[in-house]
Amino acid sequence: MVKPRFGQHFLIDQAVAQREVAAAGLTKEDIVLEIGPGKGIITALLAEQAKQVIAIEIDTHLVEELRKKIPENVTLICQDALTVDFDCLPRFTKIVSNLPFQISSPIMFKFLQSSFSIAVLIFQKDFAERLVASPGSKDYSRLTVGVSYKARCRILEMVPRDCFSPPPKVDSAVVELIPYKTPRFLVKDEPFYFELTKQLFNHRRKKIRYTIRSLYRDIEDLPFLDQRVEQLTPEQIGQLSDKLYEHL
User: Fold this and answer.
1) Domain identity same for 104 and 162
2) CA 70, CA 98: separation in Å to the nearest integer?
3) Dihedral sign, CA of 100, 104, 109, 111?
4) Distance, CA of 77 to CA of 96 (rounded, Å)
């Protein structure tokens, strides 16, 4: 019996797996990327419906077990997904994964640097709620802003913790991610926008004027100075970023 060595929580509920795969709307033209296939419950369903599956698994013991049972149209890569160059893979069209919880944020941003039509992903419930949070809510964060700039995101269903083995301490959620063809809105300088967003959320309880003053200088001709970043929409943060970028 293969035991989890990387904090994995293996999906064991076949009905949840079937609904997750169905949400991706696969055809025989699709090449699907799966991160963390684990024991292969989702992999088998993907292989039935897609042209090809690219499965990336870091655990060598799991890879040994998977190689004994995967169909011919599954390409299994034993590597850390965070270090794999996605541009060197066959051009995948969709992503379906029960993601290892500890890499949720970096792998999400790595996905958004790639080209695909839809991703259907299982995350921890609290992470999923941060993805879809509204301005002013406790879950609204840098993650919310960064993802919403690139893609439309929604929660499809909640998944109880007893659908996994071993069961995690919290429930999970199935999330649908559909990238925009172009960003949701335009900013003058994307790296500056993302860096400003990061700095503002690092001081989310401060009024924006004080964070700007500590990072750059006292600039009065900027919008939203007397508000906190958690009150601003992503577009408003973009307006602030553009004005500040002009000044600097």
Assistant:
1) yes
2) 17
3) positive
4) 16
Using the structure block, give the residue that is written with the tokens 């006292």: 218
The conformation of residue 134, written as its DSSP 8-state character, comes to P
pTM for the full predicted model? 0.93
Please check whether residues 63 and 155 belong to one and the same domain. Answer: yes
Whether 171 and 204 map to the same domain: the answer is no
pLDDT at residue 52, rounded to an integer: 98
Tell me whether residue 5 is in a domain.
no
The reply to whether 4 falls in a domain is no
Q: Torsion angle, CA of 22/92/150/198, rounded to 10 degrees? A: 110
Q: What is the 3-state secondary structure (H, E, C) of 20-33?
A: HHHHCCCCCCCEEE
Task: Name the pairing type of β-strands 52-57 and 74-78.
Answer: parallel
Do 127 and 104 contact (CB within 8 A), yes or no? yes
Q: How far apart are alpha carbons 248 and 244 in whole angstroms? A: 6
Reported as a single tens digit per residue, the pLDDT across 165-177 is 999 999 999 999 9
- The residue range of the domain holding 108 is 10-179
Is the Cα torsion angle 222, 224, 227, 233 positive or negative in sign? negative
